[in-house]
Design goal:
Number of strands: 29
Number of helices: 20
Strand content: 15-25%
Strand order of the largest sheet: 10-11-9-12-13-8-14
Shape: globular
Distance between the termini: 13 Å
Oligomer: single chain
Mean pLDDT: 88
């Protein structure tokens, strides 16, 4: 949660107005800040800086009564005379931070749209668009470059230099470029002292510049040839290219079964776009940004840039610089790569568009899908959203005619989709003679698959060894002291860990409350599942992939390479193994517990469960051998699991959208969520109560004035305010949390109204809050 105090809307106190003649021929610079107070504020541009300043550059300006220097973004330059009679006396801008704009005019327009759409400041939007390494010039250092004065060998002064000094000057001229002092020493064979003497005389001029960041050499990848497309792929490609080549900002939803060849359609479209001299962005979930994915694109395209969170700041700056210099045709990355500085954009692809990682969880809380559609409109680019399980927002956009669906229902080579079986864990079919996470039927299927030479993937979206530590004597559950959550037992380091705030303590041997022995470790995490697999299948190599085991650089790549080579026969882990993997020898997928997120207090719980089960099921049956999927669940009758069993997305969408429409949930209404937190719950609750009351009063006035279509109209109000109430995770990281939900059919008026109320009733100093537009997480 970010800290949004009342200074979000503060302005500096007014000063004496200026005289009209003071404004003649002057320029005013509008400066926005990334931290409170956000502005934007106006400054006069000093004449010496006038030839150098451009919109999109960073500047240093005095702020506040003490005139502390702050760095901000120049978002607008306009004649000062336009503001005569209305503008207070302005301070002058002090200096420029950048030699050239750090954001383009198109990026600046995009930042202004994000600020309006997601109710944040322009400065926050710009800060969120630019990687930290770019803002901090990571991977660069200042160097002094020397050149000769243009007239060093003309006039009386030339007769006063020594022969040694002349040799230095001639060596610098012969170089044909500016040299660093060490380079000039080597080129001339003379000393630094003599070079310094020439600089004092003005015969050598020094210029300080920053080096360009250096890219890490990309791994050599063998070139690959395009595959022949089947009819479904070819039809989809034609529709995409028609729009892209005509410069139509059309949105396509590539609705393809897992294994239907969506990636090949992306690459074929990019091929044509690049041939035409335009550029493409490919977004994939961070979890799917695997070496396998990158190798496929590197095998087809030469000029590729990569942007994702595993790069260092210096590496990301180097990639960004390459893109900004026009040296990249294709940018591949996670969510933030949508802001890559491409100026000839022709195509944006978002693979696995349903994935929650495309929603930013810090200010600005944008969704990459919405930003992509907006950016495509700016550039005349086509957008392709690909998924076997599209988000319901995207599916409804197709139904409403806002996007075009392109169906690819068949797998490549007409391979069948795997059979999915739901194993009811409530029955006696669970192993009667053994206890553990793996049921008797799943164990039998694993043994058959492994002994036949196949590989198995097991999904369990819970880390650690045991998910609950409880005393059997008094019933006490060991909880995090900072969060309303039980601690997870990690046996590899004998620790009890909170996966939300990272609190850690030694695993208790006695009950912390009653001091009874025999503490009970209940629930199953990936660490315990790994131990069980090794015990039951000692002759088959097993590997666990989760955030605990994949910490070292390159560990993810090494693990998947070993699995691809067949060294690992059982791969188990969290959702990082559920998507983006293509291994033909996987003949069995087991879902250990499909209910882990099914009953969360979140209206998207069913959708997420359906997507996860369908996606992990798609990892099998991609080779010659048929695949099978076994899903262990205590809710086999649940519609989401029944639809996943039949690979029937349409049926799932039909049922779920009906419920969403009846209850006024997205995608039929937009959702804004305000979460307030404080160490003392009272001020947060009181403030959020007051905001809700003011909103309801103003909305009731608007609703009463709204014309009705008929006398009998009983439609749901255009805006509903629910709460405030305790958030589902009522205490997190030491803060008490409350949330307020606002459902609206038409978002812009509500955004404006809410901004006005937040100005009128700022949060108390001890309360922090976030405003999340199109909220994705409800916990």
């Amino acid at each position: 949660m970010t800290d949004r105090q009342p200074s979000l809307f503060e302005s500096e106190p007014p000063e004496a107005p200026w005289e009209e003649d003071e404004l003649r021929d002057r320029l005013v610079v509008e400066v926005a800040f990334a931290e409170p107070p956000f502005g934007p504020y106006d400054y006069l541009l000093p004449e010496p800086l006038r030839p150098h300043l451009r919109e999109g550059m960073r500047v240093r300006v005095p702020l506040g009564p003490q005139n502390h220097l702050r760095i901000g973004y120049c978002v607008r330059v306009s004649p000062a005379a336009d503001r005569a009679g209305t503008t207070r006396r302005l301070k002058e801008l002090r200096s420029l931070v950048d030699k050239a704009p750090i954001v383009s005019p198109g990026q600046l327009d995009l930042a202004k749209w994000i600020a309006e759409e997601y109710v944040c400041s322009v400065g926050e939007a710009l800060e969120g668009m630019l990687p930290a390494g770019v803002r901090g010039l990571a991977g660069t250092r200042e160097r002094t470059y020397l050149r000769t004065a243009t007239d060093w060998n003309v006039g009386e002064g030339v007769a006063k230099i020594t022969a040694t000094q002349r040799e230095i000057l001639e060596a610098l001229d012969r170089a044909g470029r500016a040299l660093t002092p060490p380079e000039l020493v080597e080129a001339s064979g003379k000393s630094l002292a003599t070079i310094r003497a020439l600089r004092k005389k003005g015969l050598i001029v020094g210029v300080t510049e920053r080096d360009a960041p250096q890219r890490r050499a990309a791994k050599e990848v063998a070139r690959t040839q395009p595959l022949e497309l089947n009819d479904d792929q070819a039809k989809a490609l034609v529709r995409i290219l028609d729009a892209a080549e005509e410069g139509r900002a059309e949105t396509f939803v590539l609705f393809g079964a897992t294994g239907s060849g969506k990636t090949e359609v992306y690459m074929a479209a990019i091929d044509r776009i690049v041939e035409q001299g335009r550029q493409a962005i490919v977004l994939v979930p961070e979890i799917s940004l695997t070496p396998q994915t990158l190798e496929r694109f590197r095998g087809r395209f030469d000029r590729i840039a990569i942007l994702h969170s595993h790069l260092t700041d210096a590496e990301r700056h180097a990639e960004w610089k390459q893109i900004a210099d026009g040296a990249a045709d294709v940018v591949i990355g996670a969510r933030s790569a949508i802001f890559a500085p491409l100026d000839r954009l022709g195509l944006i692809v978002i693979d696995e568009e349903h994935d929650g990682s495309f929603k930013q969880d810090q200010t600005p809380r944008y969704h990459a899908r919405a930003v992509a559609i907006r950016r495509a409109k700016q550039s005349g680019a086509a957008v392709v959203l690909g998924s076997a399980t599209p988000s319901l927002e995207t599916w409804q956009a197709c139904e409403a005619g806002k996007a075009t669906r392109l169906d690819m229902p068949r797998r490549v080579l007409d391979r069948p989709l795997p059979e999915v079986r739901l194993l009811d864990m409530r029955t006696d079919d669970r192993g009667r003679t053994r206890r553990g996470a793996i049921s008797r039927l799943l164990e039998r299927a694993m043994r058959e698959s492994l002994e036949a030479g196949g590989q198995t993937i097991l999904l369990l979206n819970r880390r650690g060894f045991a998910t609950q530590i409880q005393c059997p004597a008094c019933g006490h559950v060991v909880q995090c002291p900072h969060c309303d959550l039980s601690l997870t037992h990690h046996r590899d380091r004998e620790a009890a860990v909170c996966h939300w705030c990272e609190f850690e303590m030694p695993a208790p041997q006695r009950c912390p409350e009653c001091r009874a022995e025999g503490i009970r470790y209940a629930g199953v995490g990936t660490e315990r599942l790994e131990a069980e697999v090794r015990a039951r299948f000692p002759n088959f190599a097993c590997l666990r992939m989760d955030s605990d085991t994949m910490k070292k650089p390159g560990s993810h790549e090494e693990a998947l390479s070993r699995f691809r080579r067949g060294e690992i026969r059982v791969l188990l882990g969290t959702q990082m193994i559920a998507k983006g993997l293509d291994f033909p020898n996987v003949t069995l997928v087991g879902v250990i517990n499909a209910d882990t997120a099914l009953h969360f207090p979140d209206f998207r719980a069913s959708e997420r469960t359906f997507q996860l089960v369908t996606q992990v099921a798609g990892r099998t049956g991609r080779g010659e051998a048929e695949g099978a999927v076994l899903v262990q669940t205590y809710s086999p009758e649940h519609p989401a699991l029944q639809a996943a069993r039949r690979h029937d997305y349409r049926r799932f969408a039909e049922l779920e959208l009906k419920l969403r429409r009846e209850h006024g949930y997205p995608p039929f209404e937009r959702l804004l969520r305000i979460v307030a937190r404080a160490t003392d719950p009272t001020p947060a609750r009181v403030w959020l109560d007051a905001i809700a009351e003011r909103l309801r009063a103003r909305l009731a006035e608007q609703e009463a004035a709204r014309p009705r279509r008929s006398k009998d109209e009983t439609l749901r109000p255009h805006v509903r305010v629910l709460g405030p109430a305790e958030a589902p995770l009522a205490r997190l990281r030491g803060y008490s949390r409350f949330h307020l939900l606002i459902f609206a059919r038409d978002l812009p008026p509500v955004r404006k109204l809410l901004a006005e109320e937040l100005i009128a009733l700022p949060a108390p100093a001890e309360t922090q809050y976030v405003l999340d537009v199109d909220a994705y997480e409800m916990l």
